[in-house]
Write a structure and sequence with these properties.
Elements lengths: L3 H4 L4 H8 L13 H4 L3 E10 L5 E13 L4 E8 L10 H4 L2 E10 L4 E8 L4 E10 L2 E7 L5 E7 L5 E8 L8 E10 L1
Antiparallel strand pairs: 1-2, 1-10, 2-3, 3-4, 4-5, 5-6, 6-7, 7-8, 8-9, 9-10
Length: 184
């Protein structure tokens, strides 16, 4: 088998150029604004709420960009952030390196969302919509429980992201993780 990387030392440039876009597609109009404000880089203060009541705090990073000729928004989030000091605690060394693809679907007037984290083999689909001043994404986790991911307290420079699960099919919600995000 030929070593294509040896023959083409920078194969990702053509892929990156084909994937990324300079802005939203004109045919998607104002619908792209729901998530478009996220484009750029964000620093995260992450709090994981453990089942035993303890909290695990870490720093992270989140990057958003236009993709697929401006018809979608893709992100990459990394916790802990690249280059973070890791001590000997196995829990503190657990990390996520995931990506989300968000596509506005005019058939349902909402966003189709696919999230993938190959580090922990977690793959989810959700539907995202504006609810008052927030953005709420609903779906099910890999065990089939309802999940709710939301963006709130949104400003041009910061927001709060929350990940919640429901043990009783959406009657009550348990907070699993929060990201306090600041634009960099």
């Amino acid at each position: 088998m030929a070593n294509h990387f040896k023959d083409n030392p920078c194969p990702s440039r053509s892929f990156r150029d084909a994937l990324s876009a300079s802005g939203p597609a004109a045919d998607r109009g104002a619908h792209m604004d729901l998530y478009g404000w996220l484009i750029g880089a964000w620093e995260l203060d992450v709090v994981h709420y453990m089942p035993d009541g303890k909290e695990r705090r870490r720093q992270g990073e989140w990057h958003f960009g236009w993709v697929l000729e401006g018809r979608a928004i893709q992100d990459v989030w990394i916790v802990p952030k690249r280059g973070a000091q890791r001590d000997g605690d196995a829990e503190a060394n657990a990390f996520s390196y995931g990506t989300t693809l968000r596509v506005y679907d005019p058939r349902i007037d909402a966003w189709q969302i696919q999230w993938s984290d190959p580090v922990i083999s977690n793959f989810l689909t959700m539907i995202g919509r504006k609810e008052e001043n927030d953005i709420v994404q609903l779906g099910r986790d890999r065990e089939g429980r309802p999940i709710r991911w939301s963006f709130s307290n949104i400003t041009t420079q910061s927001f709060l992201w929350r990940g919640e699960t429901s043990p009783d099919d959406g009657r009550t919600w348990l907070l699993d993780v929060e990201f306090a995000a600041r634009r960099t």
